[in-house]
Amino acid sequence: MINLEPTISQIEKLLEENTEASVTYAALECRLAIERICYERLRLAHDYISHDDLRKWQPSDIVKTLIQEVDAKAAETFTLSIAREHMPEGSPPLARENYEAMEWLPVGTQVGFAPNKLGKLWNALAKLALHIEIPTSKDATVTQYGDIQAIAPKVKLALAEIRRISEGTMMFTGMGEEVSFECSCGSKNKRRLELLKDGQTINCINPDCDESYGYVQTDMTFGRRTFEIVCRACEASRDIPKRMVEKLRTDQHIHFDCSRCSETIYVSWRPMQAQRTEPTLKRPK
């Protein structure tokens, strides 16, 4: 669990100074704290998701991706407890009322939050405090800081949310059945079974690996995604990772030597112009 107390104390101190500069810096500290809260959850989840699976970099969007891909309870509040009484290995499952009657010892509490709420606070702080207003005319004044009367209330709202989240004593990476496979690079990739969708693309968690896999729900397998490249000189074929090609810009290429004839093969994207052919209409006889 990250320690937010030093940040909270710093924000409170800046608010007490109550100057345009100090309140602006307090807004920045709040923004950074929100990012830490969201990115720490991402760090803990990186065994289950590739960095390339993150569709947006904004903190709230990252948490939404974790909820969809890694742990449905990533932003929920709950307490994890263990039973005081030890259950012997191989014991038959108990009825619900028996479990409820047992004595439970709390291990820790994860304090949740609404990603949309954090995202709105994060954006509002930037809009009010972290950008100088563009002058609309020659007579307009360019100020160094924003309006303290508008910034301070928003900082206090953000601080209250940060303080609430800081009361958590644990962060969790989820529960449920896992499926896993080993990438050709040797990295073990894991996913929560209940969150996988048929045909979903899974990028390898190794940041230096270009492999990706397609999930087949019927047999719970992961198939390597590749393009078959055929050498024009000797017609030998070779599979290369689709992800490697998908990352290319139109002004880039990759190349490699054919394993059979050593011919250099280049792979690149090329713009193509499609020509629409109008259908020919026949008059009835």
List the helices and strands and how they pair.
Layout: H1 5-17, H2 20-45, H3 59-69, E1 78-83, H4 96-101, E2 104-110, H5 115-129, H6 148-166, E3 178-182, E4 188-192, E5 201-203, E6 212-216, E7 221-224, E8 226-230, E9 237-241, H7 242-246, E10 253-257, E11 264-268
Antiparallel strand pairs: 1-2, 3-4, 5-6, 6-7, 8-9, 10-11
Helix pairs in contact: 1-2, 1-6, 2-3, 2-5, 2-6, 3-5, 5-6
In short:
The protein has 285 residues and is an alpha+beta fold. It contains seven helices and eleven strands.
Describe the fold and architecture:
The N and C termini lie far apart (82 Å). The radius of gyration is 27 Å and the shape is flat. The longest helix is centred in the N-terminal third of the chain and has 26 residues, at 20-45. Helix 1 (5-17) runs antiparallel to helix 2 and helix 1 runs antiparallel to helix 6 (148-166). The protein contains seven helices and eleven strands. The protein folds into three domains: 5-166, no CATH class; 178-224; 227-268, no CATH class. It has 285 residues and is α+β, with helices and mostly antiparallel strands.
